[in-house]
Amino acid sequence: MFLSISTTGTPERPATDLGFLLHKHPEKAQAFSTSYGKAHVLYPEADAQRCTAALLLEVDAVALVRKGKGRGGAPDAALAQYVNDRPYAASSLLAVALSAVFSSAMRGVCNARPERAAAPLPLRIEVPALPARGGPDLVRKLFEPLGWAVTVAPVALDERFPEWGDSRYVGLVLESETLTLAEALRHLYVLLPVLDDAKHYWVASDEVDKLLRAGEGWLPDHPEQKLITSRYLSRRWSLTREAMERLELVRLAEADDSEVEEIDNAVEAETEDEEKPTPLAVQRRDAIIAALHASGAARVLDLGCGQGQLVQALLKDVRFTEIVGVDVSMRALTIASRRLKLDRMGERQASRVKLFQGSLAYTDKRLKGYDAAVLSEVVEHLDLPRLPALEYAVFGAARPRTVLVTTPNVEYNVRWETLPAGHVRHGDHRFEWTREEFRAWAGAVAERHGYDVEFVPVGPDDPEVGPPTQMAVFEIKSTANVEKEAKAA
Ligand code: SAH
Known about the structure:
CATH class of the largest domain: Alpha Beta
Strand content: 15-25%
Helix content: 25-40%
Strand order of the largest sheet: 2-3-4-1-5-7-6
Distance between the termini: 63 Å
Shape: elongated
Structural class: alpha/beta
CATH topology of the largest domain: Rossmann fold
Number of helices: 18
Radius of gyration: 28 Å
Bound molecules: S-adenosyl-L-homocysteine
């Protein structure tokens, strides 16, 4: 089992600094015992221009079997326990060795060359035999979004018999100039076992912590986040879900703080100064409540309810008999429950309201059977590639009669005096749409799921750039309408 890391250098920044970064001296061949065998670190080349460190793991097949048994691993066929690809394929074992031998480097710690540990460097990583379930395509999908140039060559099952086709191994070369060594090692630590897809030890819940730690800074935004998470956790669904939700929290942790401020300022303005124009957050809430009244909804979902301002407003209105706030952020829900004083509420009032944690990227039985769902300033917090999942969960699975979606109109941003040109309104906004983009999205969603959609401006409707907030009001097509249209078509 073998992996090599190379870098190039200049007289001022010699390549041999790699030895400092890895905490392994280039002039010494070193061996470390790990629980699955001996790991060797050696440098096939080391000068100012080029330096290559190789990690070689000699797997102890017997130890491997014992460990597997001791931990209640899958009972393999007797022979397969001893005769398998573990000794030579770069798998999860190599990842474990990597983290054992290069643990400081993985954390980006380097007292001798701190400035180099923090800076990107030219890197070339070679893994000659990588088991890749999912093939070369998946290898590219996993590494390319992280800034790697990927060369992946299928390895023939047997070179003497090309007609036998390819094995499930590939030869992998990764090259980048934009990553730090710590980032590179953390990518390998997670993605080698993901590609191997056969973890050798029992997945315990601290694996979620390991994954989140190694995934810091890249996994929350990776387009294949779900596949990576579920394979890394050996497809244990409850763990995968926990990890996904915690990743979402990591991403939102910062957003929460400023959103609290934004909203609390709005509320202050609302209560203190009647002269000031009504804050946008309040105008939005009013527009939502008006649209809910018009639809006749009594049982309402507030999806991505944040800290519960809308839930609170809906509770004051007896027309709403059941109000459910859902958010992925536990912290937001805790604040919401404090705001609503849920623990001190009378029984009747309390029976009208529920808060629960959930992610809109998953279908959820608990969301079925409501009159209306509100998504107020939520869609722009999801990465675009995840919107179809939200679309399906809301319009495909939950299917309330009415859906209200509000989102910023990016065209209006030029009117905000304090907003630098070209900036979005909030650091956690993944995108902001023009009126046309929003209409295109909402129109397509309505079309796909059998809804009609209309658009309502919220806030001053500027003749040139439109309103600051745009709202789409979706109403499910009645069966009669659907039939009529089918006939007409
Ligand atoms: N609806 C509130 C809060 C908007 S902020 C308002 O109008 O003021 C966006 C909210 O969406 C945050 O509370 C965030 O936690 C939540 N959110 C983001 N992604 C989510 C997801 N995938 N599932 C559920 N909630 C999500």
